[in-house]
Amino acid sequence: MNQHREPHEPTGSADGQQITLRSPAELADALPYLLGFHPTDSIVMVALHGERGRFGGRLRLGIPRAPQEWAPVAEQLAECLIEGSERRGSRPDGIVAFLCQDPAEGETGRRVMERLRPLAQRLRTACGSLDVPVYEVLCISEGRFWSYCCPDVRCCPPEGTGLALPGTSVMAAAAAYAGVRVRGSLREMEARLAPWPAAEAEDQARALDDAGAALVPRILAGAGRKQVAEETLKLAESLMERLAQAPVPATGSTDQDAEDDRLIGHDEAAAVIVGLQDRETRDRAAEWMEGPEAAPALRLWRTLARRCAGPYGEYATAPLTLAAWVSWSTGDEPAARVALALALRIDPRYVFAQLLHQACNEGLDPEALRRCLRSERQERARHGQRAARPTSGRPGPRPARPGSVRKALPAAGPRPGATTAPERARGRTGRRGTRGGR
């Protein structure tokens, strides 16, 4: 199906500016501006609305490695995008899809395109079965793109077409004018949150062993839970102060992450990581979400997520979700979505991540949750308890009431068999080897 003459318009900026995309080349160039990053190893689907194909909802998922998974995944993605668009107001009139994957060793971009062709067909069939046509499917690999729908070799030759140089297209100019920022590749964004390699994480793992043995029994005992929460938040605020006072390297995010790792000791990181496994402690930490607290909090959560390596990978769900929340609260939705995807990859039943992910998908305003958390903080201040503020020293947080975060976010479905953080932690106390694998 050749739909090149049907222009597709992304959502305009605040002043009503619109950009018309008329070709597969312009669609391929627009993709990172639609997502806020360059997707890698991803299926991306974008809903189109109206006669002019205005861009609407969009979703991204990693490409399943097993081809036998492609058909059910395509059906789920089509259903999710179409039903989600209907919930937000209107059924899509069409869809465009992108398959983004770098070649494996010894593979070419064209070979990637051919290998993924059945997946492209599955996506078209799944959307067509729901009476929504797919106008275009592009494969992007090795700096080139191929169309699965266009038979015209003049614009879509068999050898593919090179992508525009970064920053040289009309879309890039319009995005720069509107303040839209592309943050690099998905792989680079995930790397900032990825656990340390096993060889580098041995000392951290031993510190987590010790912290678990010392803190988890106190959390489970009930009487010591509040004290562990206060200790965790006090240590976290001191680490945030340390990060806030450290000079920021001018050489980029990689050097900043390395410096943040250097500033936080293994025992300090372990104590906060274990403490955050308690839901109420985590909810209080979520109050560092705006103003001067947000940036050091985000750096701390990223640092702690990287420390959850090896058998402690499951512990990363709390700092990853907190990183996602701070990112969303401060207007960086692409970074929030990346962190949420990683958290839900580790624990698909983690409720806070589920709720935030659903809220992002439904286009909700984070202010509702911010108001709820501010209210909790103010109520603790009125009760005269110490506030966990890294810079002001004013009074604040008391343990959050059950459901204080959930009440400001969309309801999630039931979680059969779900466990609380202390229950998940119960099997991890002591030295390594005290539970199966840990």
Automatic annotation (TrEMBL):
Annotated stretches, region: Disordered: 376-438
InterPro entries in the record = DUF4192
Q: Where is the composition biased (Low complexity)?
A: 410-422
Basic residues bias (residue ranges): 427-438
Q: Which domain of life does the protein's organism represent?
A: Bacteria
Question: What is the protein named?
Answer: DUF4192 domain-containing protein
Organism per entry: Streptomyces hebeiensis
